[in-house]
Write a structure and sequence with these properties.
- It contains five helices and three strands.
- It is α+β, with helices and mostly antiparallel strands.
- Strands 1-2-3 form a three-stranded antiparallel beta sheet.
- The protein starts with a helix and ends in a 10-residue tail after the last strand.
- 3% of the residues are buried.
Length: 122
Amino acid sequence: VKLARRFGPFAPLLSWKPLRAWLERRIERRTIPPDAAERARERSQLWGRVEDDRGRFAEGRMETLEGYAFTAESAVACARGVLSGTIPPGVWTPSRAFGPRFALSIPGTVLEGPSASPAETR
């Protein structure tokens, strides 16, 4: 947050295409994506919390495949759902189109938290 505040005034410079292109090239050269063996070993862990205006809250954790693998698996599952004709035409959020527990349909995904049914917890 401190870094964002410090560099916030310079954000308009990123609209200058030559500078943005130069920064993107530098990032791409320094970024090494994980190989297949690394992706197979890794897992993604997420945590979330919601709170209402009375201070009541619920929180939960989810663990799933490594990020690249989860993205690929979920994209294929979404495409299958759309191609099967079960999703009505229109514009949908993922949870509206595929249901609030769609992520749990991806093999290797587990949910921990107060909203989890007994079959979905560890």
